[in-house]
Design goal:
Length: 560
C-alpha cells in the first residue's frame, strides 16, 4: 500500500454538482429538494428511524507459481518431449444476453447513451431456472479513439437506484471519464430498473406511520418484524429466490456484463457498498479487472452495525473539534459538543412535532433525540450539507421546527430497494454479528450514540427476513494485486477512514488518500480527488500527481 494522506488539510474545492450553490441550506434539482443522502451513495447505509439504516482477493492474487523443477534429459539420447495437450476452458452453463432497449432512466439531451437489458440467471446454481433483467446504460466515450477498457460504476446501498442519479454522476465526474473511455452504469439485481425489483412499500409506510406514534423500542421492533415478514412472503409467492440476491451473484452479474459487452478488461469505480461489490469482483474475477477505485470503503471484514455508534460519534466529534478550532465557528456555536448532547436529551424528554410530506400524505413527525441524531448523521454524508451541521444543532436547541424541515427531508423512509438491502445485509453482515457483540462495542460510548444507532433493530428485521448466512468468505479481507485507488472522507459517518486503511492493507498495489473536509463519496465531491482518479485511470501502475491537495480551500462552517 502506498499512502498519500492529505494531512491536516480540512479542505474542499467547489462541489462538482449540477448547478447547486454550496453555501445555501436548501438545494434544488428539477424543482425538488435535493436528496442529500442519496447523493452520498449511502442509500441504505445510513441511520434511519427504527431500522438503524433506512442508507464488498482471497485466492484472487496468485502467490506466484512455483517454478517447475529443471530436469536435464540424458545427453546420449536427446529426446523431445511431446507438446502437452492444452486443457480446454470449461464451457459456462449459460450465456449472458445483452438485449438493446430504449433507455428507461432520466437523461439529458445529447448524452450519447446506449441502453439495454442484461439477462442472467437469478441463481447460477440453477442456470436453467428463472432469469432476471438488469437495465444498463453505456455512456460512450467522447473521442474517436477510446481506451478499450470502460469504467463500470458500482452503486451503493446495497439496493440504491443508481440510474436515477445518472445525470448527477455524469456531471460529478462521469463526463470527465468519458473523455477517454466508456462509462457504464447499471441497475444491480433487485433494484430500480431491474426485473424483479425487491420492493416493500409496506415497510416505507410503516416507517412514516411509526414516526408519528409514540412507541417503545420493543413495540417498534415487533411491528417492523411483522411488516418485513409480510413483504418476504409476498415476494416468495412471486417465485423470487431471496437468497440469490447477494454480493457473489451481484459480482457474477458484473462479470457477465463485461462478457456480454465484449470488453477484455474493465475498470471498477465503487462507492460505499459498491466498494464491497468491487472487492468481491476482484476476489472472484481478478483477470477481468484492470484497475479499481474504492471510494468510501466498506470492506467485508468489518462489523457495520456493531461499529455504527462509534463511527457516527467519530464523525460528529470531527465537527465539534474543527468548529472549536475555527474562531468564527467557535464564537457562533460555543461548546457545540455540549449543546448536541443537551439538545438530544431535551428532545428525548420533550419531542418537537414537525409536519413533513411522506409518500401518501402529510405526517406530523415526532422529532426526538434519536431522529435528531439520525438527521445529523444523514447530513454528514454530503459536502453541500456539511457547513450547516452546527447551525442545525443550534436550531434544534432553540426548538426552531421550521428551520429543521429542510435538513430532515429524506431522512425518514427507506430510499433503497428493501428486499435487496436485507438479503445482502442479513446474510453477509448481520449473520456475523450478535446483539452481545454490538452491546460490547457500544459499552463505553455515550448512551445517546449507543441508543440512536443501536444494532438491535436490524438484527430483529433479519430474523424476520429469514435469509441464511453467506459463505464465511464474505466476511474475510480481500487480497489482490490489481492496482487500486482508495479514498476516504474525514466526515464520513458510515465508512470511516480506518476502513479504507484496513482494505488497503491487503491491496499491495494501492494508493490511499484521506481527504479532510469531505464526507461520503470523495470523488464526486472534490475536484482534486477527481483529478487524481483520472490520472490513475490513465496509468494505474504509477502514483498520481497529488499536488492539487495543497491547493484545496478549507471547509468553512456557516456562521450566518
Amino acid at each position: 500500500m502506498r499512502t498519500m494522506r492529505a494531512d491536516r488539510l480540512r479542505a474542499v474545492l467547489s462541489p462538482i454538482s449540477p448547478g447547486r450553490a454550496p453555501l445555501s441550506p436548501v438545494w434544488e434539482r428539477g424543482g425538488e429538494p435535493l436528496n442529500a443522502v442519496r447523493r452520498g451513495e449511502g442509500g441504505g447505509l445510513r441511520a434511519v428511524l427504527f431500522a438503524v439504516l433506512a442508507c464488498l482477493l482471497i485466492g484472487c492474487a496468485s502467490a506466484g507459481a512455483t517454478p517447475a523443477a529443471q530436469v536435464s534429459a540424458p545427453t546420449a539420447e536427446p529426446t523431445t518431449a511431446p507438446e502437452p495437450t492444452p486443457t480446454p476452458e470449461p464451457e459456462p452453463a449459460y450465456q449472458p444476453i445483452f438485449e438493446p432497449t430504449s433507455c428507461r432512466l432520466p437523461l439529458m439531451p445529447r448524452d450519447n447513451v446506449e441502453c439495454g437489458d442484461l439477462i442472467v440467471p437469478e441463481n447460477r446454481a440453477n442456470p436453467d431456472g428463472r432469469t432476471i433483467r438488469l437495465h444498463v446504460a453505456i455512456f460512450r466515450a467522447r473521442t474517436d479513439n477510446p481506451a478499450p477498457d470502460p469504467v463500470i460504476h458500482l452503486g451503493g446501498g446495497p439496493g440504491a437506484a443508481l440510474l436515477d442519479d445518472a445525470v448527477f454522476y455524469l456531471q460529478a465526474g462521469g463526463n470527465a471519464i468519458r473523455m477517454q473511455r466508456d462509462y457504464i452504469m447499471f441497475s444491480q439485481r433487485g433494484t430500480a430498473y431491474a426485473d424483479p425489483k425487491l420492493e416493500c412499500n409496506e415497510y416505507a409506510l410503516f416507517l412514516w406511520q411509526s414516526a408519528e406514534e409514540e412507541l417503545d423500542d420493543e413495540e417498534k421492533w415487533e411491528q417492523a418484524a411483522r411488516v418485513v415478514a409480510e413483504c418476504r412472503d409476498r415476494l416468495a409467492r412471486q417465485g423470487i429466490d431471496l437468497a440469490a440476491y447477494n454480493s457473489a451473484e451481484n459480482a457474477a452479474d458484473v462479470e457477465d456484463l463485461r462478457r456480454a459487452l465484449g470488453y477484455e478488461q474493465v475498470n471498477l469505480y465503487g462507492i460505499s457498498y459498491g466498494t464491497r461489490l468491487a472487492l468481491t469482483v476482484l476476489r472472484e474475477y481478478p483477470d477481468s479487472v484492470r484497475s479499481v477505485i474504492l471510494d468510501s470503503v466498506y470492506p467485508p471484514q468489518v462489523n457495520l452495525y456493531s461499529e455504527m455508534p462509534s463511527n457516527a460519534g467519530r464523525a460528529l466529534n470531527a465537527v465539534f473539534e474543527n468548529c472549536a478550532r475555527d474562531p468564527a465557528c467557535n464564537a457562533a456555536y460555543p461548546n457545540l459538543e455540549q449543546t448536541f448532547f443537551e439538545t438530544y436529551d431535551l428532545l428525548e424528554e420533550q419531542p418537537l412535532t414537525i409536519p413533513l410530506f411522506g409518500p401518501d400524505r402529510q405526517y406530523v413527525v415526532r422529532f426526538d433525540g434519536e431522529l435528531f441524531a439520525s438527521m445529523l448523521f444523514a447530513r454528514l454524508y454530503t459536502l453541500e450539507s456539511l457547513p450547516y451541521i452546527p447551525r442545525w444543532i443550534e436550531d434544534a436547541q432553540e426548538r426552531n421546527a421550521p428551520a429543521l424541515m429542510t435538513p430532515l427531508s429524506n431522512v425518514i423512509g427507506f430510499d433503497v430497494a428493501p428486499g435487496m438491502y436485507w438479503s445482502i445485509q442479513c446474510g453477509e453482515e448481520v449473520a456475523f454479528e450478535t446483539e452481545e457483540s454490538a452491546a460490547q462495542a457500544a459499552a463505553e460510548l455515550p448512551p445517546q450514540l449507543a441508543g440512536a444507532f443501536a444494532a438491535a433493530p436490524i438484527l430483529r428485521v433479519c430474523e424476520a427476513w429469514g435469509v441464511g448466512p453467506a459463505d464465511p468468505i464474505e466476511n474475510e479481507p480481500v487480497e489482490s494485486d490489481v492496482p487500486a485507488l482508495v479514498f476516504a472522507g474525514e466526515y464520513d459517518p458510515i465508512t470511516p477512514p480506518e476502513w479504507a486503511r484496513l482494505a488497503a492493507e491487503t491491496l499491495p498495489n494501492s494508493y490511499l488518500y484521506e481527504f479532510e473536509g469531505v464526507g461520503h463519496g470523495v470523488v464526486r465531491s472534490d475536484g482534486c480527488a477527481l483529478l487524481i482518479a483520472l490520472q490513475f485511470l490513465d496509468d494505474p501502475t504509477a502514483a498520481p500527481n497529488d499536488s492539487c491537495i495543497a491547493e484545496r480551500e478549507p471547509l468553512r462552517f456557516d456562521t450566518r
